[in-house]
Amino acid sequence: MTIRVAMWSGPRNISTAMMRSFGSRADTVVADEPLYAHYLAETGLDHPGREEILAAQPTRWQDVAHWLTGPLPGEAAVFYQKHMTHHLLPGIGRDWLAGLRHAFLIREPERVVASYAKVRGAPTLEDLGYPQQREIFRAFGGPVVDAADVLRDPEGTLRNLCAGLGFAFDPAMLTWAPGPRPTDGVWAPHWYASVHASTGFTPYDPAPADVPPHLHPLVDAARPYYEELAAARPTDHS
Predict the structure, then answer these.
(1) Domain 3-230: which topology?
(2) In whole angstroms, what is the distance from residue 170 CA to residue 183 CA?
(3) Looking at the chain, which runs of residues are DSSP E strands?
(4) 3, 18, 51, 238: most buried by Cβ count inside 10 Å?
(5) Per residue in 172-226, pLDDT tens?
């Protein structure tokens, strides 16, 4: 039976590298942000590649849910779904989520906000996905990994994650060939240059995050959400 993993991350994280990691497993198929077209259709936001995204994915969340929980071609043991938490809009039903195993990729708010501020000057808490991430965690639970832990100790952190999801770690998850993948979303040319150039996880950078002063309140608002999930990490993380 296929294990369906919904990995929930906010933006400006290592979510695409994590998708590469899982996609390197011979027993795994991946899906890249399957709710993105629905999110754009409902919000009307003008993201890079908007028209291509709307043409490439279902815009009805019900169709997406059916695909993510329905029959899969082949014999994949793991179906890894890379989700952005802010794509889970309030109008999307939640019942179908019970058919997935959930995991959560978190990152310190100051690092998320500092990175996001470079591409958008005034994000909201909902843009960062922290409330939605906590909602899913409280409803369904599941293993939590911090991006900093992954970058400090990829093998140890991924071993804990795989164990929490109910399958064995595969050393193939630590490296991958550079370049694009057919499973990458059509938005990849706009956002995935660094991942396309990579062959594994980059080392952790301990330099302090440079948060613009006007966004300090946003960091403070996000911190309780982050800390609640961070407390659920394995106790032996590095």
Answers:
(1) Rossmann fold (3.40.50)
(2) 20
(3) 3-9, 28-32, 78-84, 101-106, 144-146
(4) 18
(5) 999 999 999 999 999 999 999 999 999 999 999 999 999 999 999 999 999 999 9
